Amino acid sequence: MAIVGINKGNSFEILPEGKTILQISKVIYKQAFNKIEITLVNQNGTSHTERFLLNNDGGMKAFSYFAHKAVNDWENEEVDTDELVGKFLRCTVVHNQIESNKEAGKMLTFANLKDYEPATGWDDYGDDDSSDDLADALE
Question: Domains in the chain and their CATH numbers?
Answer without folding.
Answer: 18-121 (2.40.50)
